[in-house]
Amino acid sequence: MSETWLDEIRWTDDGLVPVIAQQTGSGKVVMFAWMNRESLALSYTGGYAVYWSRSRNKLWRKGEESGNRQKIVSISIDCDEDVLLLEIEQEGGISCHTGRESCFYRTLQDGVWQKNSPVLKDPAEIYKK
Amino acid sequence: MSETWLDEIRWTDDGLVPVIAQQTGSGKVVMFAWMNRESLALSYTGGYAVYWSRSRNKLWRKGEESGNRQKIVSISIDCDEDVLLLEIEQEGGISCHTGRESCFYRTLQDGVWQKNSPVLKDPAEIYKK
């Protein structure tokens, strides 16, 4: 496969690109993460989101442990070619490690971050071995 | 006003936080940018998005030149407290400097970034003085 499309991305000095994951259909923004070249190539060829974990410094196959994989519907790039937008189908309906649909579950109200959505599944249940 | 909510954000070493802007109603992700503490405080108190331009190293009052301001509907934060999601009402219906609704106007198809949406207004018209 030609990798010209990968070369067109303006990677950070660390070789990463920020990625926004958005649920297809509802349009809900569920997650923000990073990819490196390898994880993006794997995402595209495999059809499921693979990120780069900056904290663990390794590939992060989303849903590997929880089962909540993200099937990729489309990959878009912004005008500056340095941010990606993933349209995904979230398996299990849970993107966040807290057991919620979206990681963006707190909204500013009167100067306080207030929870806006419920825990759908106990993380202890999601991540048990 | 208490600034506790600003202290809860995990700013980068450069004092910034990544921000996703999403059109209210349609849910379309239109832009990705950065804010520093001052620009976020100004956004919240003023009701219109003010970003931090990393290329120009100064406050960027979105729409100041084009008139395409972003009225803030809500501000949400992610589970790690290091990314913001802005629900906005895009004045003029154009977020991108190319004259398109969204900056994410190219989608990967068969290994090529293909344009997915039209220019609504000629940038030369948008940015003329």
UniProtKB/TrEMBL annotation, chains A, B:
InterPro entries attached to this UniProt entry: PRA-CH (IPR026660), PRib_AMP_CycHydrolase_dom (IPR002496), PRib_AMP_CycHydrolase_sf (IPR038019)
Transmembrane portions of the chain: none
A GO cellular-component term linked to this record: cytoplasm
Catalytic activity: 1-(5-phospho-beta-D-ribosyl)-ATP + H2O = 1-(5-phospho-beta-D-ribosyl)-5'-AMP + diphosphate + H(+); 1-(5-phospho-beta-D-ribosyl)-5'-AMP + H2O = 1-(5-phospho-beta-D-ribosyl)-5-[(5-phospho-beta-D-ribosylamino)methylideneamino]imidazole-4-carboxamide
Cofactor(s) essential for the protein: Mg(2+); Zn(2+)
Keywords associated with the record: Amino-acid biosynthesis, Cytoplasm, Histidine biosynthesis, Hydrolase, Magnesium, Metal-binding, Zinc
Enzyme class: hydrolase
Zinc keyword on record: yes
UniProt-listed Gene3D superfamilies: Phosphoribosyl-AMP cyclohydrolase
Known pathway: Amino-acid biosynthesis; L-histidine biosynthesis; L-histidine from 5-phospho-alpha-D-ribose 1-diphosphate: step 2/9; Amino-acid biosynthesis; L-histidine biosynthesis; L-histidine from 5-phospho-alpha-D-ribose 1-diphosphate: step 3/9
Entry's localization field: Cytoplasm
Domain Phosphoribosyl-AMP cyclohydrolase: 31-105
Signal peptide: none
Record text on cofactor binding: Binds 1 Mg(2+) ion per subunit. Binds 1 zinc ion per subunit.
Main location: cytoplasm
Chain positions recorded as Zn(2+) binding sites: C79, C96, C103
Listed EC numbers: 3.5.4.19
Residue positions binding Mg(2+): D78, D80, D82
This protein's record includes keyword Zinc: yes
Domain of life: Bacteria
Function: Catalyzes the hydrolysis of the adenine ring of phosphoribosyl-AMP.
Subunit-structure text: Homodimer.
Name the record gives this protein: Phosphoribosyl-AMP cyclohydrolase
Organism of provenance: Methyloprofundus sedimenti
Name of the coding gene: hisI
